[in-house]
Amino acid sequence: MTASPLQSLLPQLASGAAHTHALGFAYEGLEGDRVRIRVPWREDLVGDPDTGVLSGGLVTTLLDHVGGLAVWVALDRFESIATLDLRVDYMRAAEPGRDLIAEARCYHLGHSVAFVRAWAFEDSPENPVAAAQSAYMLNSSGGRGLGANLKAPREAGQ
Fold first, then answer.
1. Cα 28–30–34 angle (5° rounding)?
2. Tell me: the pLDDT tens digits for 134-155?
3. Rounded to an integer, what is the distance from CA 138 to the centroid of its chain?
4. What is the rounded distance in angstroms from the CA atom of residue 7 to the CA atom of residue 48?
5. pTM of the predicted model, to two decimals?
């Protein structure tokens, strides 16, 4: 079975944006419809210097980004998407000095919205640091150009 062209892009999509590169996001792999990325523990990513725990904002960014990757996996192509809604439930503090892994899967792909569940953890998604439920808007233009939804201008006298 041949890998789709998207699969060869996933490592770049995981870490190619300026912010994901700066944060150190790295592609971990794809298993079925579940995609994984990792962020290494670094001192500059710590939210509480007294404990060494990674920042909650970093965890949110990680979950949002892996969710987007899961949407592209479900679509089997890259296209513009936007986060519509992101809920993150924090279960516990991340373990100091440990990398975080995030895993996501798109469980429903509609015409214009995709729905994703994601988890951040050190070793196993069964013991999550945080879990996310999110929705992403899809590019539903169907190849139509900008303004295709606008009515044609009325002619004089109509």
1. 110
2. 999 998 665 555 565 566 666 6
3. 13
4. 36
5. 0.87
